[in-house]
Amino acid sequence: MKDRKLHIAVLVANLNGGGAERMMLNLAKGLSSAGMKVELVLTEAVGPYLSEVPENVKIIDLKAPRVLKSITALTIYLKNKKPDVLISTLSRVNVAAVIARKLSGVKTKLLLREATTFSVETNSELTFWNKIINFAAAKVYPYSDKIIAISEGVYKDLIEYLKLPENKVELIHNPVVGKDIFEKAKEPCNHPWFNDKSTPIILGVGRINPQKDFSTLVKAFSEVNKEIPSRLMILGQSDKDDTETIALYKLIEELKISDKVLFPGFVQNPFSYLSRADLFVLSSRWEGLPGALIQAIACGCPSVSTDCPSGPAEIFKNGKYGLLSPVGDYLNLANNIKEYLKNPPSKDILIKRSLDFSIEKSIEKYKKVFIEIT
Predict the structure, then answer these.
(1) How far apart are CA 341 and CA 338, in angstroms?
(2) Residue 347's Cα: distance from chain center in Å?
(3) Distance CA 316, CA 113 (A)
(4) Do residues 203 and 235 make contact, with C-beta atoms less than 8 angstroms apart?
(5) Which end of the chain has fewer CB atoms at under 10 Å, N or C?
(6) Diameter over CA atoms, the chain
(7) Which residues of the chain have pLDDT under 70?
(8) The domain containing residue 33 runs over which residues?
């Protein structure tokens, strides 16, 4: 293997703008920069991040609108290209990867990246279909060569909940922070809210869904606004016809804060927003290792979070770099928001902490795993 470039296939459903998609794109970029032959395999080549794929990373489009329908195309790809290592992420994609490798009969090594606290997500308010996918994932994960846990909490959860042997699971933090974050943080942000320096701006980031629990953030913001007039902006994709979104808009109206809350939707460069915001808030019920939280501190943005399983306590070092609140406790969250609006931590300290989650550090650990399994 040392006499030629390792051929790495990075498998993800699409590049539609989520955190997992961003991390897999960063991983593909990092591995390519480290001298490996990298192919970014997409079940469907769509999404705003497509424009960020560098020329030295080849895109393989399986042309399947649904992940499980991509198994045949993925099997053919593996037979034809025979990559040394296939890395996939998210439960439904991981299930497809295990099945396709088995059907292909190739010797490609398989790494499954687990991006969330598996036990908490499985026992949460998932749809019936998602529960089926998670059940299947739990059954097939042992057939991989390694499972990558992105945080200490995910690592422990996989071993305890899925009864996996410790040598099967490897802890590798997400490749979050690269020089592009610092460059993009300096780019102009033309939103008019940022022209008014007298009113603090609080940011949330993510899709509107039960996991992100934006209702707790909205209620906390309403409490903060009684004492500190401020504005709340939530960046990320949303479906206005979705029941979760409808309920959130209704809550905002009931609290009479509609003129102070904004949903700009997906933005190509959230870092220009984060570098100018007064505070970032993560209100999630569960996570794996929230990339948005690391990106926020990389932009020097003071941050508070729920102490959800898992990731925030690890990122903050149990309060050293940010304030933690119990999940769902909007009053405690409001107090922490007010504390940091009045007494924010040093931006330099936050930026320095974010470098522990650099792309370079993550890639070095992946390279060690490649050497081990190949």
Answers:
(1) 5
(2) 22
(3) 23
(4) yes
(5) N
(6) 66
(7) 1-3, 125-126
(8) 7-175+358-373
Same domain, 287 and 224: yes
Residues 204 and 171 in one domain: no
Q: Give a yes or no: residue 2 inside a domain.
A: no
The pLDDT, as a whole number, for residue 49 is: 94
Pair 221, 162 in one domain:
no
| pLDDT for the residue 126 | 65
CATH assignment of the domain containing 119? 3.40.50.2000
Q: What are 211-240's pLDDT values in tens digits?
A: 999 999 999 999 999 999 999 999 988 777
With beta carbons less than 8 A apart as the criterion, state whether 109 and 76 touch.
no
Q: Which pLDDT value is given to residue 240?
A: 77
Q: 210 and 100, same structural domain?
A: no
Cα angle, residue 278 at apex, residues 317 and 228 outer, rounded to 5° = 110
Which single residue is written with the structure tokens 């040093």?
Answer: 346
Question: Are 190 and 164 in the same domain?
Answer: no
Overall number of domains in the chain: 2
Q: What letter represents residue 313's amino acid?
A: A
Q: Which residue has the tokens 């010797």?
A: 107
16 and 153 both lie in a single domain: yes
Cα-based torsion angle of the residue sequence 220, 221, 224, 228 in order, rounded to the nearest 10 degrees: 170
Number of CB atoms found within 10 A of residue 320's CB: 10
Q: In this structure, is residue 192 part of a structural domain?
A: yes
Specify whether 13 is located in the same domain as 107: yes
